[in-house]
Design goal:
The structure is a homodimer. By secondary structure, chain A is of the alpha+beta class. The first copy, chain A, contains 14 helices and 18 strands. At the A-B interface, strand 9, strand 10, helix 6, helix 9 and strand 11 of A face strand 9, strand 10, helix 6, helix 9 and strand 11 of B.
Chain lengths: 467, 467
Amino acid sequence: MTLTFESDDSRYIAELAEYVAIPSVSRDGDPATLRRAAEWIASRIDFADPQIVETGGHPAVVGAWLGAPGAPTVLVYGHYDVQPTGSLDEWKTPPFELTSYVDEATGEQRLRGRGSADDKGPVYLVVETCRQFLAQEGALPCNLRFLFEGEEEIGSPHLASYVRAHADELGADLVISADGAQWRPDEPSLSVASKGLLALDVTVTGANRDLHSGRYGGTVANPIHALTSLLATMHDEEGRITVDGFHDGIPALTDERLAEVDAVAFDEEAYRADLDVPALHGEPGLSTLARLWTQPTLEINGITGGGSYTVIPHTASAHITCRLVPGQHPDAVRAAIEAHVAAHTPAGVRTEIHVEGGAVPAYTIDPAHPGIQIARDALEQVYPGEEVLLAVIAGTLPATVLFEEALGAKTMFFSFALADEWHHAPNEFFRARRLREGMRAWEILLRGLGAAENLGAAALVTAGAEN
Amino acid sequence: MTLTFESDDSRYIAELAEYVAIPSVSRDGDPATLRRAAEWIASRIDFADPQIVETGGHPAVVGAWLGAPGAPTVLVYGHYDVQPTGSLDEWKTPPFELTSYVDEATGEQRLRGRGSADDKGPVYLVVETCRQFLAQEGALPCNLRFLFEGEEEIGSPHLASYVRAHADELGADLVISADGAQWRPDEPSLSVASKGLLALDVTVTGANRDLHSGRYGGTVANPIHALTSLLATMHDEEGRITVDGFHDGIPALTDERLAEVDAVAFDEEAYRADLDVPALHGEPGLSTLARLWTQPTLEINGITGGGSYTVIPHTASAHITCRLVPGQHPDAVRAAIEAHVAAHTPAGVRTEIHVEGGAVPAYTIDPAHPGIQIARDALEQVYPGEEVLLAVIAGTLPATVLFEEALGAKTMFFSFALADEWHHAPNEFFRARRLREGMRAWEILLRGLGAAENLGAAALVTAGAEN
């Protein structure tokens, strides 16, 4: 039995365009706009008694279809919020007008727009698959719950309290995240791990006011000088993180794991050329892929101070995020950075650290988990002849750790975004063919999960076995 | 014979408030607004056949009163443009509403507003003095020309070509700048030197687009990391500039000059406390005043890149200005910085330097110049019992070097702004009593200059004798 999809993608694209047109930027968007996006996706799960629920921040959308007694229950997770656009000048077309175009280099049809890949497209196709099950077969193959949050791009500050308070209504044997991304356009992949995240700001303060750079220059410390000196101590020239204690708790990288990673085909030169950098860069002694999959990062995402005029600013600050790997605890990493900043604060200034809420440790799911096996089968059917790669998401999905803790359920990533689709950057896009491929894969996955036994227990037994 | 001024300051303050109300920010202001400021100050020199003249940028205001045959001719220089406001949140009252208030700590009446001290107040009082000469005595004591430019705060990019092309119409025995500042509120001072200025931007570029910090972190150089590393190599921990060749051409600081500077009363602890920094900072082995008066600076005025979200930005940049001392040539300093950046560019990124036009070397006037002697007398009469200090303007007045070159005339600074009046910063102010003191001092100065012989020649003979 298979579902019948549309003969062309025009309806799918038009509907996704409606969704993308709502500029649901969680960082600084208007709450009413965020709510409109919530309402839009809620309207698409009208078969599941959708509710827009308050979380203390932007609302979440929940729903449940529990018409398959005896079958497993799966919680589908995604988010309706999007990243800020960044500089509008850099967008080839307006970020909130989903624009279909043919990529010259590949001949592929693509859909450009903020949120097209992260996470509106991937969520849209799940929901559309479910709608077709109900329309064509009158039922879903397994019980489904839905949770779409509106704060994923700002670290999900209210999700934890909501999920903990409503664990009964969200209970499931397995969580499937429609967020995340498959790794490469030319091979199907499943993610079995994601990195944690810790975000903080470092602010350096000098004098009590901005000063004329002539009248005061050379007499007081300049907070920008101090900040650049301080930040420069956090990595060595070759890209190693040099913050004492940052790596504490990370198990030594085994030769076996390294061999596993190095066995994955990865063209460093093509990767370099795509990014147009003079050279790849990072912790020496490891391949690029090994760095990406096995190493934590300490990234200065933003820096700001003063302006383009003759001033000694009185303050300068940097936004830092760390991507954590298994073994690192966010609190310990925070303490290591605080100690480093205290020890390396240059003379003549004061430093202050503000740690954002919502830090999360890294997450893993055992490759032997039955959900992974079923998902692998689904991908092999949609992409016949291709081997399914077990990959690491070097990004962070804060909800995963929470679901394990609050619901006792592992989370599996099953997204049809691809990692090269300029997530978080100007000109984010989603490949049009992935709408159709994703719907077929979800159909097969849901049928497989509906037939599975003991989906929850297997996961918990093996939790933590993977690094 | 003395001029009679108003019995109170209300007219002066009301007129200055009109002038401050025109937000003539040269960096990014509307050209029509700049022109309104030009028209305002032109209307105040209606006795001197004022002209608003095109320069290629914001216009200049020129005028001449030449009714004193046989007396010297003096060119009065100032500017009608102002610095950007900086953050409006930091202003206690709106920047373009001149606000009279009593300072709690000192009991002084002050006038808060952008441009009140730099340079609208100091120019206003010169012009008002001239108006009173004409109203009360029917003539000025010497011939006066006026040149008020509209681009001083952006490095006077069009002044040089204008002055060179119109040298005949601007010709004078001496230039007096109503820009600049006296050094301290509690003692009169004259500036005998000012520092030069070189401004440039350093931009670091990594990948061809902003990247998701999870999906790419650890594989490519982050331009902010590279920029902070690069900038951190430009000073050592103690604040010495470590750019090879930066100091080339600067004569060794003599024990005599050092003793002269160190003989000036300067309370480092009060200076530190006023700025509220944990410690003063800069080149070790020199007093704070010696650093300020004798040492060049390399100041990072602004830095920007990325934002407060999980991005590896594709670019980051810094604005740098250098304050130069006698002996340094701007071109050589630029070359030294370019070589330093090339040699210290971290792996994995590209750097680019953009040098702003309008760089100027340092400037000096001999303390024995007759204009300085006359000005000293004027200050001693207005501030009886106070010794007049010969100070260095650690800021830059680009016009000085130009006037010497194009007009063959030295420039003397005679401003009634004070260096502590938060020039270039939020809450810039001007002391109300200085309006009156300044007018009286200009009256005495103009009378003295009118009686002087050979004002021009003495200056040229001794040019360059001072470091």
